[in-house]
Specification:
This protein is an all-alpha fold and 141 residues long. It has one domain (6-130). The protein has six helices and no strands. The longest helix has 31 residues, at 67-97. It is elongated. 26% of the residues are buried. The mean pLDDT is 85.
């Protein structure tokens, strides 16, 4: 039985977390005790994205895919990098939102954007997993 690559197991955490992150963000508007938890959730999200990217890169180096598939993988990696940068940018915003009220609304908008960016990166990953790029036909001499 073939084992599942670590990347395939880890990648679901940041996607799932990004999708549910706006819910505690909305709850924190009314429940001040939840506000510090938002900082922790953003930190976990950033670390989970990084771990998924690291294991994905290691897996690609292990299998060395053909050029057409490598192009799709590169696109997936670019989207994941953008997802990580956006998560890291939202981290200080979550810290400021603990004490100040205006950034909280901006933080919820950023959390919704993170959910979309996570899905955008995941879409490229599912393209690799479920719709592999066919190899070009070999030319016979």
């Amino acid at each position: 039985m073939q084992s599942l690559p670590l990347h395939a197991l880890l990648v679901h955490l940041p996607i799932g977390l990004a999708l549910v992150l706006p819910i505690p963000g909305l709850l924190a508007l009314r429940l001040p005790a939840l506000r510090p938890v938002l900082v922790l959730l953003h930190l976990v999200l950033s670390a989970a994205i990084y771990a998924a990217m690291y294991t994905g890169t290691a897996h690609v180096e292990e299998i060395s895919p053909p050029a057409p598939i490598q192009e799709v993988i590169d696109e997936h990696e670019r989207r994941a990098q953008f997802f990580l940068l956006a998560a890291l940018a939202a981290l200080p915003l979550s810290a400021v939102a603990v004490k100040r009220s205006r950034p909280r609304v901006v933080l919820i908008a950023a959390q919704c954007a993170l959910a979309l960016l996570g899905m955008y990166a995941a879409l490229a990953g599912t393209t690799i997993s479920y719709f592999p790029v066919p190899e070009p036909p070999s030319v016979s001499p």
